[in-house]
Design brief:
Elements: H1 3-18, H2 35-42, E1 50-51, E2 55-56, E3 81-87, H3 93-109, E4 112-116, E5 123-127, E6 132-134, E7 142-147, H4 155-166, E8 181-183, E9 229-231, H5 247-258
Parallel strand pairs: 3-4, 3-5, 5-7
Antiparallel strand pairs: 1-2, 6-7, 8-9
Helix pairs in contact: 3-4
Length: 264
């Protein structure tokens, strides 16, 4: 191989690595960023008012917590929680496959069943909008779940947003979080500090889960990439994974499906 030909081959290889293909299974984000960073980067272009980075501000209630069953997807007499959905025709067949695989993770481990909408009034509408975001719990009528094609079509992100649609908040918003993580307020811009508010959560008698797919990454809403969340007592515990449900995620989905519980 001549020197110019070898140089050209290296250049082409470098370009292919810098711009990974966007088609295929997309089971994981090929980038090295955590799930929160990916979601927040994608949501930079949205005009929606979002809480904690990817939850739509409730329009039908004045808080992120409900006190009745209206915001809960109902369990049928067969013991299954059936959630109708539609999906935009803007998604390619391979993107639809990734979305379907993410939904099947609920089917294979819990009693949640996402089914194509027939004529149900309450349903989730999966759309290619300007970010990765969802409402929290069932809101009634058409419920938009945004999965931008350029940044959200990864199983971990889809499962994260679908879990919001079931009513689950972020793990580090738990009422007992201060016993498990330290929030580094000095590394958070003041206008973003509200994203780290604690919520009055029902934790279902389950332990704090650093490995939850609902946990922020350690640099979420960071000033210049500094850590905003530090696990305690061991600061090296990984958080913000994007590979799929943890065992406690699965347990909580099962619990929320069996009892009159809206949010944990």
């Amino acid at each position: 191989m001549t020197a110019p030909a070898g140089l050209l081959l290296l250049l082409l290889l470098g370009l292919s690595q810098a711009h990974p293909l966007q088609e295929g299974s997309r089971e994981e984000n090929p980038d090295t960023v955590d799930i929160t960073t990916q979601i927040l980067m994608t949501n930079n272009g949205t005009n929606e008012i979002l809480l904690e980075g990817d939850m739509l501000v409730p329009r039908t209630r004045n808080a992120l917590k409900c006190y009745n069953q209206n915001c809960r997807w109902k369990k049928g007499s067969n013991g299954l929680v059936t959630i109708p959905y539609t999906i935009s025709s803007e998604f390619t067949s391979s993107e639809r496959q990734v979305i379907s695989q993410a939904m099947n993770a609920f089917r294979s481990t819990t009693c949640i069943r996402f089914v194509p909408r027939q004529n149900e009034n309450d349903y989730i509408s999966i759309e290619n909008l300007s970010g990765c975001y969802s409402s929290l719990g069932r809101v009634g009528g058409k419920q938009v779940l945004s999965l931008n094609r350029q940044g959200c079509i990864y199983q971990g992100i889809i499962q994260h947003e679908l879990n919001h649609g079931l009513g689950f908040q972020h793990e580090q918003s738990r009422s007992d979080r201060d016993s498990y993580v330290r929030i580094n307020w000095e590394n958070i811009a003041p206008q973003n500090a509200y994203n780290f508010n604690k919520e009055d959560t029902n934790n279902l008698n389950t332990p704090y889960d650093y490995s939850s797919i609902m946990h922020y990454g350690r640099t979420a809403f960071s000033i210049q990439g500094m850590d905003t969340i530090t696990p305690i007592p061991n600061p090296n515990v990984p958080i913000g994974q994007r590979n799929g449900f943890s065992q406690w995620d699965i347990t909580r989905i099962k619990l929320i499906s069996c009892y009159t519980i809206c949010y944990y």
